[in-house]
Amino acid sequence: MNRTLRLALGSILIGLLVLGLKFVAYLLTGSVALFSDALESIINVAAAVAAFIALQVSARPADANHPYGHTKAEYFSAVIEGVLILGAAFAILNEAYHAFLHPKPLDAPVLGLAINGAASVVNGLWAAVLIRSGRAWRSPALQADGKYLLTDVVTSIGVLVGVALVALTGYEQLDAILAALVALNVLWSGWGLVRDSVGGLMDAGAPDEAVQRVREIIGSHAQGALEAHDLRTRQAGHTTFVEFHLVVPGDMGVAQAHDICDHIEEAIRAEVKGAVVTIHVEPEGKAKHTGVPVL
């Protein structure tokens, strides 16, 4: 099992632990706001399972039916997570509506808040691990999981403060209002996950800074060529595909042009981890004078 899969499995175990703690807090207090926080944790566990499966699929090597590999499988898990989040938000809104119409006092608020707070600390620490590792290993599934956990931590803090105010002031309908606010925040985070994942499935290009770095590498490592144009990039999980046309002098031999391409490819792969580079060599008559000039 590789390091990414180990983290994904860890997310499932952490999610189950946090889910148990938050439901205990809800059962102790009867707070619908704490119930909404616990419901988010169910989504965390389901999403962690989806991410684990997607990472297993994405780790498979390219085959005859998938010559570009299986890396896009990670985006499907992020889309599934986004859809689950949206469903949870509507469920929370329904509970908040009924709780607002029929409010009730909280039971054992101090103990319930303490348990929920401990769950939030665990979530926060694990979210930091997932986001840092997801960025370093360029895993959309781990980053999506970590970002949502971080959102969960923020909403949990708000819920803790709000439920404490309910206990102090006796304003019972505030509990339902807090749950509704949690639902709106969940809706926003779910929309963000779906939007980003759809971008990956639609072959969105690499970030602007990455594209600019590739342009600089081509310009400084293509000595002997004349220019590069029609540069295109796309990302699929941890893989970045780079394609462009390289213009060389018309009298240059195939072997020399091939050496230039190898030099460029090595430089790009050294800078952009997981890069897959495709270069189309053209004679100088195909120059457009609008691409990347060779220094």
From TrEMBL:
Keywords tagged on the record: Membrane, Transmembrane, Transmembrane helix, Transport
Transmembrane helix is among the record's keywords: yes
Stored SUPFAM superfamilies: Cation efflux protein cytoplasmic domain-like, Cation efflux protein transmembrane domain-like
Pfam families (UniProt xref): Cation_efflux, ZT_dimer
Residue span, Cation efflux protein transmembrane domain: 11-202
Residue ranges crossing the lipid bilayer per the database entry: 7-28, 34-55, 75-93, 108-129, 149-170, 176-194
Domain Cation efflux protein cytoplasmic: 207-284
Main localization category: membrane
InterPro entries in the record: Cation_efflux (IPR002524), Cation_efflux_CTD (IPR027470), Cation_efflux_CTD_sf (IPR036837), Cation_efflux_TM (IPR058533), Cation_efflux_TMD_sf (IPR027469), CDF_Transporter (IPR050291)
Signal peptide interval: none
Topological category with respect to the lipid bilayer: Multi-pass membrane protein
Subcellular compartments: Membrane
Similarity-based family: Belongs to the cation diffusion facilitator (CDF) transporter (TC 2.A.4) family.
Name of the featured protein: Ferrous-iron efflux pump FieF
Organism of provenance: Deinococcus carri
